[in-house]
Amino acid sequence: MPLDVLIVDDSAAIRKILQRVLQQSELVLGKVVEAADGREALEALKTQKVGLILSDINMPNMDGLQLLGQLKSDDQWKHVPVIIISTEGSQTKVMEAVQLGAKGFVRKPFTAEQIKEKLAGIG
Predict the structure, then answer these.
(1) What predicted TM-score, i.e. pTM, was given to this entire model?
(2) Are the CB atoms for 83 and 57 separated by under 8 Å?
(3) Alpha carbons 105 and 114: distance in angstroms, whole number
(4) 46 exposure class (CB count in 10 Å sphere: 0-12, 13-18, 19+)
(5) For 17-52, how does the pLDDT look when each residue is reduced to its tens digit (9 = 90+)?
(6) 52-55 and 29-35: which strand pairing?
(7) What is the pLDDT of residues 101-123, one digit of tens each?
(8) Which of 2, 6, 52, 115 lies 20 to 30 Å from 85 when distance is taken between CA atoms?
(9) Tens digits of per-residue pLDDT, 72-108?
(10) pLDDT of residue 123
(11) How many Cβ atoms sit within 10 Å of the Cβ of residue 31?
(12) SS3 state at 106
């Protein structure tokens, strides 16, 4: 069954790169939805069901950790795997993301292989 994915990052370039990496991965992709921040992501999720979320941390309006907290406290979304992809590499932020329920953490700049490795256990 195809996997619908939500990519949340304030950089359009990063969203396009992640979309390309997803297409090259072993995942059977369905629809790929994009959002520029956590608020946009929550709006998109009102109309679009997804099976995977890739999210940055540092974004305007609502950051990735706030988004993750909201997703994990909502019965509809708490089981959807979230992989954080961010320049934010501090141990504190990584631990916070994991404690909030992130399935994985990849630091930017990333390679396609690093992303594919994190996706291997999903889908």
Answers:
(1) 0.95
(2) no
(3) 10
(4) exposed
(5) 999 999 998 889 999 999 999 999 999 999 999 999
(6) unpaired
(7) 999 999 999 998 999 899 887 75
(8) 2
(9) 999 999 999 999 999 987 889 999 999 999 999 999 9
(10) 59
(11) 12
(12) strand
Helix (H, G, I), strand (E, B), or coil: what is residue 44?
helix
Two structure tokens written together for 8: 């949340």
Query: At 96, which amino acid appears?
Result: E
Residue 8 in contact with residue 84, Cβ under 8 Å?
no
Whole-angstrom distance, CA of residue 84 vs CA of residue 104: 6
User: Which tens digit of pLDDT belongs to each residue from 43-68?
Assistant: 999 999 999 999 999 999 999 999 99
Dihedral angle sign, alpha carbons of residues 46, 51, 54, 55? positive
Q: Based on the number of CB atoms within 10 Å of its own CB, is 60 exposed (0-12), middle (13-18) or buried (19 or more)?
A: exposed
Residue 9: phi and psi, rounded to 5, are: -160, 140
| Residue that the structure tokens 């890739």 belong to | 54
SS (H, E, C) 25-43: CCCCEEEEEEECCHHHHHH
CA–centroid distance for 111 within its chain: 16
